[in-house]
Design goal:
The chain is mostly helical and 179 residues long. It has helices at 3-14, 18-39, 47-60, 71-105, 110-127, 131-142, 147-153, 158-178. Helix 2 packs antiparallel against helix 3 and helix 6 (131-142) packs across helix 8 (158-178). It is globular. It starts with a helix and ends with a helix.
């Protein structure tokens, strides 16, 4: 669909037109599901729930969408946040138990403790980043995708993606300095 037609649908959906919102969802649902499945790949059973939560959240917050970015990018950001929230909830619930098992199994080996603390620090820093910074980091650094694949998934040119990735890494570095 041509970008101008999508913009018309976005405008109508922002005014409460449910049919326009449904058309937008239909246009992006397959890529949104794939994106949710990739971002939540450590929790594959969660992808469908993340997608549903994303669509509900998008529908509730459609009037807040400022159209500064593509509608698909906004949806992917919501999906990424939903996945991160689920990941954090699961991680928090199992983190204490995992840490105790980890520490006891290695008899408090200092190298293992340092690695655990480093992972915890990086996860905390990632959790505090906005979606615009998380997504490029997840696609490139966590998943290991090449810039061309990441750029296509985020609907950006490769130079634009690399620029966002650079800013995201700088933001992560700044977060790590603050922690």
């Amino acid at each position: 669909m041509i970008r101008s037609e999508e913009n018309k649908l976005v405008s109508l959906a922002r005014k409460g037109d449910k049919a326009a919102f449904e058309k937008l969802v239909f246009m992006h649902k397959d890529r949104l599901f794939l994106s949710a499945a990739q971002v939540c790949r450590s929790m594959p059973a969660e992808a469908e729930d993340v997608m549903q939560e994303t669509l509900i959240s998008a529908m509730k917050n459609m009037k807040r969408f400022k159209a500064n970015s593509a509608f698909a990018t906004w949806l992917y950001s919501i999906a990424s946040n939903n996945c991160w929230m689920r990941f954090r909830k699961k991680k928090t619930a199992s983190a204490v138990l995992d840490e105790k098992r980890y520490l006891s199994s290695y008899n408090r080996d200092s190298e293992k403790i340092i690695k655990l603390e480093l992972a915890r620090t990086v996860n905390k820093a990632l959790a505090q980043l906005p979606p615009a910074h998380k997504m490029p980091l997840m696609l490139s650094d966590v998943r290991g995708n090449p810039a061309s694949v990441c750029a296509r998934e985020m609907e950006l040119s490769v130079p634009a993606f690399k620029s966002r990735l650079h800013r995201a890494r700088a933001a992560l570095k700044k977060q790590l300095e603050n922690i």
